[in-house]
Amino acid sequence: MTDTPANDVAARAEDRSAALVRKRYRAERRFRMYGLAAIMAALGMLTVLLFSIVSSGLPAFTTTQVALNLTFDAGDIDPDGSTDPAKLASGNYRGALLKSLRAEFPGAETRKGRRDAINMISNEVTFVMRDMVLADPSIIGTTQRVWVKSSADIDQLAKGSIDRALPESDRRVNNRQLGWFEKLEREDRVKTTFNTTFFTTADSREPEQAGILGAVVGSALTLLITLLLSFPVGVMSAVYLEEFAPKNRWTDVIEVNINNLAAVPSIVFGLLGLAVFLNFFALPRSAPVVGGMVLALMTLPTIIIASRAALKAVPPSIREAALGMGASRLQTVTHHVLPLAMPGILTGTIIGMAQALGETAPLLMIGMVAFIVDIPQSFTDPATVLPVQVFLWADAPERAFVERTSAAIMVLLTFLIMMNLFAVLLRKKFERRW
Amino acid sequence: MPEENTPEEMEVTVESNEAPGATQAPKAPPTKVNARDVNVYYADNHALKDITIEIPENRVTSFIGPSGCGKSSFLRCINRMNDTIDICRVEGKIEIDSADIYDRSIDVVQLRAKVGMVFQKPNPFPKSIYDNIAYGPRIHGMVAGKTDTDELVEASLKRAGLWEEVKDRLAQPGTSLSGGQQQRLCIARAIAVSPQVILMDEPCSALDPIATARIEELIDELRQNFTIVIVTHSMQQAARVSQKTAFFHLGELVEQGNTELIFTNPVDKRTQDYITGRFG
Ligand SMILES: Nc1ncnc2c1ncn2[C@@H]1O[C@H](COP(=O)(O)OP(=O)(O)O)[C@@H](O)[C@H]1O
Ligand SMILES: [Mg+2]
């Protein structure tokens, strides 16, 4: 090849374009790296968060039991020997328990020793004894070896959360109790079991008796109200705005307002609920019905916006097809458009519900922050909800409540993940190609 | 016997009496749709200007013209689909069988059952083939019970020439068919409610030539029972399927008449330019 000027130009152009290609590849690689790095950072933080919650929450799912020899003293429980259930139910079980503890723990005779002994075990033991007697009165007068729940402090000791090497004054378990516990351990009278109490009871001052079920039921009742109110109203509004309302200035104003409503801080809805539902309509405080109404207000914009998007995504050709067949507008919407938009609407609704499930602030305003030991039975019973329960336990100083806080967060996260997973599955299942 | 003469044969006689020598002249069937001075506005856009046309019964009438000239807009006036567009305003008079369809006593739902429509892009409902056909008759209360519906579905699919292809998979979604089959399904769906007029807006523009040929054959068969108005981009198609052609340009109806005359001997310069391919 001769080096004509024309060849030269062509060669240089080729060089330049090769350099451009290389540069483009480099830029693309770099961009992908940035994206990957961002995702890694996000995943890393999520992992740290989950790890810290799970590692501090897991111990709450187990509990410590100790085997005690309980004497069902006839003099305390059934002084007149009547075996009448009504009388048996009101026997002096505390006295019987104290007698048993004195026999079990040397040094429990003094007042201070007695308190130490009592603090070894959960104060539900007297009720356990009563229930045993009511179930089988023939055990009166006998001594039974019974596995009873330890107190929260002993539970922490067994789990290793309380350092036995610390000086006595810095420990929640004193030396006498430690001695008793170590004796029980040597005699193989300590065991760790699954903490069913946590899933079967409501809140309690005693950590070992506190459970999440009250908050779960409260959340369920509250969300049910929220769903019943916000779903129909939200879907109806979306259908009206999207399918029937004339497109004019008024609908624009409404649209802007709905979008604004979605951005209003949730505590404002709480204040509104306090002013309107509690003060004006005098509805009960702390009740799921009010909580549900407040959360419904908060969820409405989410549902309306998601439903409108889902309705918009239904291709106009479907509406034309139906109208062209002589379907009325209502028939077009109910027979064709709404069923096709439903998966999207439901996905939006579930996401709105998940938001409502995690909401705390507005519920604080309407008094759902109270300490409630009973599992709510109806929409007007005082109740609390999962995130508020987390809030309450996080405030408690005991070590045992710290792990229960994390455990409650785990329960809350489980529900949230299940709801979001369901939304994703729903979307996958009904994804449509037109 | 004179009673056995079909109206068409009688018209042929009348026509040849009036215009002796014109052997290719169209028969003159009764007018089905009669539009007088129709104006259509989209907000301030005057999309159609003083359209006056008569659409003959049991014939295929084609609307041709460049994009945006208002063919679809006019077609949509005939079944009042323009009512669904907020900014659209229709003025003038359109009569079907001498009844004004914009009269306040007219129920648009019933009108649309009488004037069916087939769209540019096949748009079957995302339901089964069976339900696609059965939907119209059901909402208009034309069928009672399952056997009744079965029969109507079968008959409609047969008339649309689709029965043999789909009879074993009526429960499958209509969207699973090929494009041409989907369009025939849409035609079957339209004729299931026994309309008198069928409007077709570029029904073949999304189809391959073979599917197009099948639809054209079908249109020719359907003309026995229905009055058909078809908007088309293809002049060959207009020439092949229609008996009457109307040429639209910039919102005006420039020229209308016997298809062959329009294509062989256009009067207006714009029609000439369009059919010789100088614009469009
Ligand atoms: N839905 C609509 N909204 C506003 N303008 C429209 C609408 N449909 C059609 N037009 C206008 O009306 C005119 C005619 O359109 P169209 O009837 O669709 O023409 P064609 O079918 O001949 O291509 C065009 O200028 C178009 O912009
Ligand atoms: Mg068009």
Average predicted local confidence, pLDDT of chain B:
87
Count of helix runs of chain B: 11
CATH domain fold name of chain B: Rossmann fold
* Content-based structural category of chain B: alpha/beta
Provide the CATH superfamily of chain B. Answer: P-loop containing nucleotide triphosphate hydrolases
β-strand percent of chain A reads 5-15%
The rounded distance between the terminal residues' Cα atoms of chain A is 58 Å
Tell me which oligomeric state these chains represent. Answer: heterodimer
**C-alpha-based Rg of chain B, rounded:** 19 Å
Average pLDDT taken over every residue of chain A: 90
* Low-confidence regions of chain B: 1-23
- Tell me the number of strands of chain B: 10
**What is the H/E string of chain B?**
HEEEHEEHEHHHHEHEHEEHH
Q: What percentage of amino acids of chain B are in beta strands?
A: 15-25%
Q: What would your notes on this structure say?
A:
The complex is a heterodimer of chains A (434) and B (280). Chain A is mainly α. Chain A is built from 18 helices and three strands. A three-stranded antiparallel β-sheet of chain A has the order 2-1-3. In chain A, 36% of the residues are buried. Chain B has one domain (29-275): Rossmann fold, CATH 3.40.50. In chain B, α4 (129-139) packs across α5 and α4 (129-139) runs parallel beside α7. The N and C termini of chain B lie far apart (51 Å). Mean pLDDT of chain B is 87; it is low at 1-23. Chains A and B meet through α14 and α15 of A and α3, α4 and α7 of B. The site of adenosine-5'-diphosphate (ADP) has 12 residues of chain B, from β2 and α2. Magnesium ion is lined by residues 71-72, 201 of chain B.
